[in-house]
Amino acid sequence: DDYDKWIPVVLGWITKSIGMSIAWYINTVITAVTSALTGALIITRSLLKIAHRHNITLEGLIPKNHEDTYIDEALSYVFVFMGIW
Fold it and tell me: What's the CA gap between 31 and 84, in Å, rounded?
């Protein structure tokens, strides 16, 4: 009976600890996806610059400026899925 008053306190601590663990895991996943997106975009833009430097246009598919197309964003998602997988 002396310890009955501590049951709500301990349950509160346990609940908060579980909630914090879930929040940290979600934060880890968000950080990983954000880093993957940033890195993949850097990779695809670098590959487009290399292709332009070597005059590889793939029948006009690769433009001179990456801002003229969405191909770098589309290819970056492929790298993101490969990186997260």
Answer: 11
Other C-beta atoms lying within 10 Å of the C-beta of residue 27: 10
- The answer to whether residues 40 and 80 touch, using CB atoms and an 8 Å cutoff, is yes
pTM over the 0.85 mark: no
Q: What pLDDT score was predicted for residue 62?
A: 79
Report how far residue 34's alpha carbon sits from residue 23's, in angstroms, rounded to the nearest whole number: 16
The pair of structure tokens assigned to 58 is 């793939």
CA distance 58 to 71: 12
CB 13 within 8 A of CB 41: no
Which amino acid, residue 66?
A: H
